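Appendix C reproduces, verbatim, an entry submitted by the partner laboratory led by Prof. M.T., so that reviewers can inspect both the input and the predicted structure.
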Amino acid sequence: MTDRLVRLLGLGVRARTVVVGVSGTRAELHRGGVRCVVLASDAGERTREKVERLARATNVPVIVGPDARTLGAGLGRPPVQAIGVSDPSLARGVLGLSEE
């Protein structure tokens, strides 16, 4: 699941249909532009609390992905703790992978 998830998110980065980072994800959640959120498995407690609470308040599903270093490396970035997916089709794919 990890490799496929990171590849899907990488496609989203190139298509600009994902928001990378905690502050960007939270901002998009406030605007209602996020269909699902991927949190790094090693995200800090404060990050989890801030992002998960906001996502739940807006009925956005949250899944736990690989660690921040793996997520960031797969996207060509430094470690990433949160990713917001705005494209509905991509979000369905990400959520489908999380159910496998």
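The chain has one domain: 2-99. Additional entries are available on request from the coordinating office.
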